[in-house]
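DM from R.C. (forwarded with permission)

"hey, sorry to bug you on a friday — could you get me a structure for this? deadline for the figure draft is monday and I only need the backbone to look sensible"
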Amino acid sequence: MNQRPLIAVASCWIAGTALLSLFSEKEAVWALAALLIALLGLAVAGMATPKLALICAAALVLAYGERAWTDQRLLPDVRVDNEVAKSGGAVELAGRLVSVVEVDGYWATLKLNAETIKGEGFEERRVKLEVIVRVKLAALSEQQTAAAWKRGDSVQVSGMMELPGEAGNFGAFDYRRYLMKQGVFWQLSVKGADRVEIDNGPPPLWIKPLRLLDDVREQIGKLTDRLFPNGDAGYMKGLVVGIRSDLDPIQFDQFARLGLTHILAISGLHVAVIVYLLLQIGSLLRLTRERSLELTIAMMPVYMLLTGASPSVVRACLMAMIALTLARRNALKDGLHLLFAAAMVMLIWNPLLIEDVSFQLSFIVTGGLILFVPAVSELISINWGWLKGAISVTVTAQIVSFPVSVYYFHSMHLLSLPANFALVPFISVIVMPLGMASIVLGAIWYPLGIWPAKLATLGNDLTFVAVDWLSGFSGWRTVWPQPSLAWVVCAYALMGVALAGMRRRSRLLREREWWSGQERLSEGEATIPLDRSLPGANRAEKVRSLLRRAGFGAALAAWLVWGAQPAWLDREAQVSFLNVGQGDSILIRTGYGKHILIDAGGTVSFRKPGEEWRERSDPYEVGRKLLVPLLLRRGVGQLDALVLTHMDADHIGGASAVLDNIPVRTLLFNGTLKDSPGALALMQMAANKSIPVYAANKPGEWQIDASAVLRILSSESRDADSDASVEIRDEQNDRSVVILATLYGRRFLLPGDLEAGGEMAIVDAEYAALGSAIVDSEGADNGNSIMEAGHAAGQKAVNAQGRRRIAIDVLKAGHHGSKTSTTGLWVDYWEPRETVISVGRNNFYGHPSPAVLQRLESAGSLIWRTDTDGEVQYRISSDGAMRRRMMVSSAPER
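My reply, with the result:
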């Protein structure tokens, strides 16, 4: 601490800022007190001077105080809450635009700094409120109208004020919490651009530079579109300028799968190129060294704002500015001082950055490179310095980013290391400079930028081919369940131990080299007596070294097992009714770690010809945006089965993304196809991936493992003739695959969208099967057929002797609670203790039907709904005990 006081102070500031992110308010106070006591102990032990300990303590307290003040300042305005509730949500806001307007398809999104609010039941009054405004555009012409709105415009807008959406599933992205951390508690939904009135008067003076930079970014985007007409313009905008709105979402997913998205984040490499170019320009203009440095320092904030001011570029620009300032004074120190100084400045400006993923990764990776690369380089026995450096940087970046990447993104591709090693230098050294040159030269005179752009496009083509090929190895993707923060902390503690060991080894090697040199000198002159036992060469030291390595290896193995959370550590089975809106998706985990996904949600599109303009560049797709992230977070590295109960869009919409991202061993469907592009493309994808596909349209039973059995219910005869052809059916509901899942003795009935006719057929088949068992033992009566006698015997057995079966624990209501499903016959036969209705909020179908709700309540079944309760999850222990929990509802577990 005494040797690096700036780092010590900055570390304390970071810790003080982070306390309220890690603990509750009461726990954070105790943690702050513990840190202050620890600083006192360091001062008493002489590890820190009293002055430095006092400064560090002040940094801790001040950082904690600033963070607490920031959190308090961001609390919602209770008076606004009451007024919005009084008006039913219909309000009129007036204020100023404080963001760029994003126009995407039929949506325009902007941030409004509201200054006044009025609505039914309360008069207009002044407020200070930031609101996300989402305008649903009614016509193509309104796209151009919305695109003309600029940051700084005065706005008057009317619409429905509502709370932002919150997470509907355990571990899903919480949009409401994300906005709350920015001080935004409301969003305003507006129908039509005509409800937005713009005053095009001059903006405030402080906004004019930002608007100018917005215009420059827009012109750069248009120029890039002209220079790169072959489909790579969006990629080049992200790579060179940080404009990511036009990136191909599928392509971005491929980069993310291989851990290459950092290429598209403006960071230290981009800033280093800009600094080099500016210094060269200063030299060409024959400026003095001091003037060149001043010019470069002055341009850093401009470049930072021009590229979007993400945490990574702010960090890089701050470090560059500090480094150039110190270089101008000939006082430049090592990179760690620059890094920690930049972190402290950014957190003083905005303490909430401590929770930003890009902020964390940017500083962790940069710090890791500064600390580890020299030590890692010494371990690599390669004579080519450039190759040794490239390997050291790539390996170090992968290792130090791994814990945080797993914590947030839950996967790591085994080909990520070679992909980064091969592609990052190629893109950074060749493609990115060519892209920068094409834009700069094209801005001067368009024809000058064409040839660099053509060369960059060739490089892009090679990059895309490589990424597409490498990302296709889906089986090489390792999946990690959500770890704890303690696991992440232990990871960096192990890295610290490893770094200390590498430095100790390096020091011993240097000592041995020195002793070897002295020995050779002694032997040559025969005058200096030497002890020929080299440091660390004796047997005891070798044993200690071996024990240290074995202990570290054991700790590393235990850490990996802790993070992987293998199935044998958890024998609890789970059934999760996921909240996918107006659709179905159910995830089953057996007690032995096998996973079955039943349906994959989706949305029904009603797009008409001529409405292509409404298509969004990155539309919400339940598989890619919700299901795949949830499966990865829960450690689902492979699906043992994907069951598609039928081919309606709200049940198969997310299946393509699942197949594209997660290996699937078996695909089960209802034996029919629907003549729709989605259904046909899905089956073609399964064929291309060589996934075995089976029709589950006959009664059968699948013993998955010792904890779980799936039984397929059907009204069809078991010995019906098989038909190799697949029938095309537009009406799919009554052909749904119906599954009775038993986990540790608990029974879950999952009927898809089965309707009244299908329910009656299955109940008849169940009665018949029950009666057939009796007839087989007693014989048929009066010449009746086995089926007729069996059916009658089944009803007689039920009526006279009581049911020869067990009532089910949980029923999924058929067809989202539609009035055509979950009939009285169905409910009476199964007697469900609990019922889950998978239904979208405010759906225009009117689901669930009041009659169905009344029927279930009369039967004594507890009812849970994904639109109001969020995800409904059941956990079954090996002794059959079952617990339930809901994402949103405050009802107790049971």
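R.C.: lifesaver. The mean pLDDT is 86.
me: no worries. The two ends are 52 Å apart (CA to CA).
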